Amino acid sequence: MGKVSIGVNMEYVRHADKPFEWAVEKAAELGYEYVEPWVHWGRELMSEAGYYQTVSMLDDPYRVKRACEKAGVKLSGLSSHTPLCKPDISGNYLKQAIRFAAECGAPVVNTDEGPKPLWTTEEEDHVLMKYTLTEAAAFADARGIMIGLEPHQQYSKHPDGLDRIYELVDSKAIGINFDTGNSYLSGHDPIEWLERVKDRLVHLHAKDISIQQSEDERGKVTGTPAGCACGEGVIDWKKVIDVCRTAPRDIVLSVECGTIEQAQTSIENLKALV
User: Does domain 4-271 have CATH number 1.10.760.10?
Assistant: First the structure.
């Protein structure tokens, strides 16, 4: 039986104009046990100036480690999404994220197939993804890091499509980062889908969807950047937690919401269930 813990994706301060260290301290203040940082390649103006929460992978990974140790929180994983269908982008990016995760202490790097190239066929895209994941899995396996594949884009928007990506490479380093909100918006039952992948589950994006967004977008999109506060939307969190407790691994519910206020409401509602 897996242990279920609560964390927060750093997206919750995306509109607050605050730096990474501030976001980690705030997460701890709100009562979160885990955080999931965003990482990027190169240098980016707003985060360098302290107005954005992402961390460059050109920085010292111990920056992330020290911030978490100071705040008394742990890392559930890294949000390191990169388009697997585009190996010219994702190949080195994902391998760098795995190195970064190994040094800062994050057990999982999360990604998805991303927007596809305009000129490739579906079969070609899966060959490209196999190339990227084969290279990345070798890096991850050697370092004890898991790659979490998320339902988010054109091929992973349904259970069979996500399974096909997962099965491209036979590696114990590849698992599933399930997203409750994306799976719901793509038109599927998130509880049934979660049951299907629970034995491969390594991380979970706890994303709720408001009734208004559900009415406007369900069946029309493959995902959304952030949801509403957990417990204020359509997702049955008791059932989500019950399924996660039957998974073979310990699972962190990494809350994906858009504001600090939603993060506070989310942990209050989830703690009552966990």
Answer: no
